[in-house]
Amino acid sequence: MADAPASNRPTVPPFDPRRFERQLAIDAAVRHAALMVLGVAAALAILFGDAGLPIGGLHLSGLSLLILGAAPWLLLGIRGAQLLRPSQEIQRHLDQRRTAEAEQLLASALRRWPQSPRSRFVLHRQLAQVRHQQRRFSEAGAIGAALLSHDPLLRRRPEVHGDLLLLTVEAWIEARQLHAAWQGLLTLHALPLRLEQMLARLLLQVQYEVLIGADAAVLAQWHRKVELAELMPQPLCGTLHALLAVAARRGGRDDLRPWLEARARLLGPRQLRGLYRQFDLAARTAAIAP
Amino acid sequence: MTQPFTPPTPQQVREHLERHPAHGPSWTAVWLPWVVLGIAMMLALINPNPLLAPWPWALLAVTLGYLFWRGRRMTRLHREVRQVQEMAALRWTARALRHTWRLVPRLVQVPPLYGTNMAIMADCLDRLNAFDAAHFLYDHLIDRMPAQSPDALLLRLRRAIVQIQTEQLLDADASLRSLRGPVEEAGQPLVALYRLATLLQQVHTHHYDDATAGSGRLVRELRPLGVSAGFGFGLVALAYHHQLHHGGHAADVAHRRARWWWASATTLMPAAAMIRRFPALAQLQTEASDG
Fold first, then answer.
1. Are A46 and B264 an interchain contact pair (Cβ–Cβ within 8 Å)?
2. Phi, psi of A59, deg, nearest 5
3. What are the pLDDT digits (tens) for B236-281?
4. Burial of A286 (C-beta count, 10 Å sphere; 0-12/13-18/19+)
5. Which of A33, A206, B81, B231 is exposed most, by the fewest CB atoms within 10 A?
């Protein structure tokens, strides 16, 4: 079957935090109701187990009561698992940066009901990634903030917490919501992170410090930062070198600047050109690209 | 007194792997929980009031306890392999190698983690210049992977580089020829690593004109390797350096270019690290320090 034209593809409406909270509350209410039904059925099974419970013309045994009571709970669990299945395909699209396809799948997955809080959380985390890839940073930041405000969903999964917070802080920095970004960076420093997450945090922190003009902070322990930059994938390594070069140039560190610029030219000339243009440093620089 | 660290020989690696081959989870580990759960269900079904019968609950608790313990154990193994991966990334190579060695017996029931651990071990051996042991492990891993997967292509490229460094030039040439198409399909950073491997081959076989041809694009071509591009810059500097002595180029142009490429290489990597990996580069360092 041919793919739908891009303009006809279903899309997810703009994120509304109040609607999201309402949906989560309804999901939780449905879940609690199913749990209550199970509890009542279990109590009835204990009370009437041996004799059975006459309802209408039927005579229900303890086991039948238990099965009937567990049915809504089980159905909700199955439904939640079903909704998590498209999330794997969505993630594959996101990893290959096929954002339109990911959004199309998300649009249909988010319309389904009822959802478990976990499936809604996972799908919205992916929606934040979609918006991030679409460079709709304010919306990505808003989704991230809404998800991060739900501690119980994150408490048991510090790795997911770290990834989500990194994505959100990056969105805040890109949207120039610097106060929120600063708070996010503080939280990131308190979380146990993997090495790759620590490297991403370092890059975000340097980006933030360059944006607020804290050049001395950027260049503090520059040697260690360069060592860590060398562990990053090349585009990020180039970006970090370019940011350090910007700080060295603005901070008048002529002892460091030529070396950092030379490395940035070799590792990420595009990033260096972009940042020098952004901070109006290009006019004072000779041709940057090799 | 602590003994100085020496990486294992290929024979030691082979014996270690033969003692602890990957075999996946045992039959009982996979099916026993389901059998016990089935028995618990049967006991519940034959009981008029299953909620008050102790045996199904006891069996259910035992099964859940076992599954919980197994899950915790898997999480711990994943975490340990990830920590070793991070040690290797941080270039704590000898320490990472020791940990991978000790992890092998504990990973035999988890083949994917076993394979990842082997790949880290091969990488560590390669970086410690234990080329024969690394070659053995690359062979071991490549034989057990789908030939065209990106991971297999990466390992085959690394094996080709090791083959060049251990003078198995015919094997390396055949490997590089067979890899050209698949690597171009796979994209970066494999294309850049392939370019580095061909550069090494050209310098190793004294084809200096081939090595310097197209050097104008080399910075862009090797950029996806990050700071490791420094190795490539060092090799092309060496090629220009040899042209200087063989008279292939106008001597002053070759001299200037050799100096420029060596300066670029040392901007990205310490000269000592490059020389440790490719000892022939030492002559460039000597010349640079002589001025």
1. no
2. -120, 100
3. 999 888 877 665 556 777 788 888 899 899 999 998 888 988 888 8
4. exposed
5. A33
State pLDDT tens for residues B118-136.
Answer: 999 999 999 988 988 999 9
A254 contact B CB<8A: no
Asked whether the beta carbons of B165 and B202 are under 8 A apart, the reply is no
Other C-beta atoms within 10 Å of B272: how many?
Answer: 11
Reported residue count of chain A is 290
SS3 B279: helix
| Contact (CB<8Å) A66/B82 | no
pLDDT in tens, A153-198: 666 677 788 899 999 999 999 989 899 999 999 999 988 888 999 9
Long-range Cβ pairs for the range B59-64 (8 Å, 24+): B62/B36, B63/B33, B63/B36, B63/B37
Report DSSP letters for B156-169, one per residue.
Answer: HHHHHHHHHHTT-H
Instruction: Name the amino acid, one letter, at B188.
Output: Q
What is the Cα A82 distance to its own chain's centre? 21
SS (H, E, C) chain A: CCCCCHHHCCCCCCCCHHHHHHHHHHHHHHHHHHHHHHHHHHHHHHHHCCCCEEECCEEECHHHHHHHHHHHHHHHHHHHHHHHHHHHHHHHHHHCCCHHHHHHHHHHHHHCCCCCHHHHHHHHHHHHHHHHHCCCHHHHHHHHHHHHCCHHHHHCCHHHHHHHHHHHHHHHHHCCCHHHHHHHHHHHHHCCCCHHHHHHHHHHHHHHHHHCCCHHHHHCCHHHHHHHHCCCCHHHHHHHHHHHHHHHHHCCCCCCHHHHHHHHHHHCHHHHHHHHHHCCCHHHCCCCCC
Could you tell me if the ipTM is greater than 0.85?
no
CB atoms within 10 A of CB A135: 11
Q: Which residue has the tokens 């420094």?
A: B230
Q: Cβ–Cβ of A234/B189 closer than 8 Å?
A: yes
Instruction: Identify the closest residue of chain B to A232 by CA–CA distance.
Output: B226
| DSSP state letter for B128 | T
Neighbour tally for A4: CB within 10 Å:
11
Best CA proximity match to A163, nearest among A110, A202, A201: A201
